[in-house]
């Protein structure tokens, strides 16, 4: 997605060789028009699949997942991130490390929101090590729903998340791949 690459080059900053700051587009602010374009891209990529719901993780995945769900005409579910010591009997729950916050949180999805009848499309903002995605996949497995595919706006392909999920057999589609953030420079993979 060339327009997204241009915006990344203009608006992102390299924090270090592993982390990109992209607040204006993905992690703090939202460009509704560009976000709708992302949603259309994902909807087109997964047009051959029957999807009953889009699922994501709060908070940065929500805008693009919403856009995708709107184009596909299906509901959106987002996993809550909570730090909880209490069990949640009415929810599926998986503990995952947070890449940017350096803490562990619980991903929680109410049991009544997804079921074995669902064919899900998982949409998220960025993939690094893939911990959030693996946590959500475990929740989807617990629910008995089918995961039809994974759409990620930005894959840092020098980190293992995307590769690992593909090796596990999941269909992972990304809008932009970053090959390196070394020397304070954003290098795209294609
Ligand atoms: P993972 O679980 O794949 O290691 O990390 C995924 C989550 O961490 C993403 O949903 C994203 O919010 C956050 N994240 C990972 N890498 C980056 C990064 O380079 N920049 C920002 N802003 N967030 C990131």
TrEMBL record:
<comment type="subunit">
    <text>Homodimer.</text>
</comment>
<feature type="binding site">
    <location>
        <position position="27"/>
    </location>
    <ligand>
        <name>xanthine</name>
    </ligand>
</feature>
<comment type="similarity">
    <text>Belongs to the purine/pyrimidine phosphoribosyltransferase family. Xpt subfamily.</text>
</comment>
<dbReference type="GO" id="GO:0006166">
    <property type="term" value="P:purine ribonucleoside salvage"/>
</dbReference>
<dbReference type="GO" id="GO:0000310">
    <property type="term" value="F:xanthine phosphoribosyltransferase activity"/>
</dbReference>
<comment type="pathway">
    <text>Purine metabolism; XMP biosynthesis via salvage pathway; XMP from xanthine: step 1/1.</text>
</comment>
<dbReference type="GO" id="GO:0032265">
    <property type="term" value="P:XMP salvage"/>
</dbReference>
<feature type="binding site">
    <location>
        <begin position="128"/>
        <end position="132"/>
    </location>
    <ligand>
        <name>5-phospho-alpha-D-ribose 1-diphosphate</name>
    </ligand>
</feature>
<feature type="binding site">
    <location>
        <position position="156"/>
    </location>
    <ligand>
        <name>xanthine</name>
    </ligand>
</feature>
<dbReference type="GO" id="GO:0046110">
    <property type="term" value="P:xanthine metabolic process"/>
</dbReference>
<dbReference type="InterPro" id="IPR000836">
    <property type="entry name" value="PRTase_dom"/>
</dbReference>
<dbReference type="InterPro" id="IPR050118">
    <property type="entry name" value="Pur/Pyrimidine_PRTase"/>
</dbReference>
<keyword id="KW-0660">Purine salvage</keyword>
<protein>
    <recommendedName>
        <fullName>Xanthine phosphoribosyltransferase</fullName>
        <ecNumber>2.4.2.22</ecNumber>
    </recommendedName>
</protein>
<keyword id="KW-0328">Glycosyltransferase</keyword>
<dbReference type="InterPro" id="IPR010079">
    <property type="entry name" value="Xanthine_PRibTrfase"/>
</dbReference>
<comment type="function">
    <text>Converts the preformed base xanthine, a product of nucleic acid breakdown, to xanthosine 5'-monophosphate (XMP), so it can be reused for RNA or DNA synthesis.</text>
</comment>
<keyword id="KW-0808">Transferase</keyword>
<keyword id="KW-0963">Cytoplasm</keyword>
<dbReference type="InterPro" id="IPR029057">
    <property type="entry name" value="PRTase-like"/>
</dbReference>
<dbReference type="GO" id="GO:0005737">
    <property type="term" value="C:cytoplasm"/>
</dbReference>
<feature type="binding site">
    <location>
        <position position="20"/>
    </location>
    <ligand>
        <name>xanthine</name>
    </ligand>
</feature>
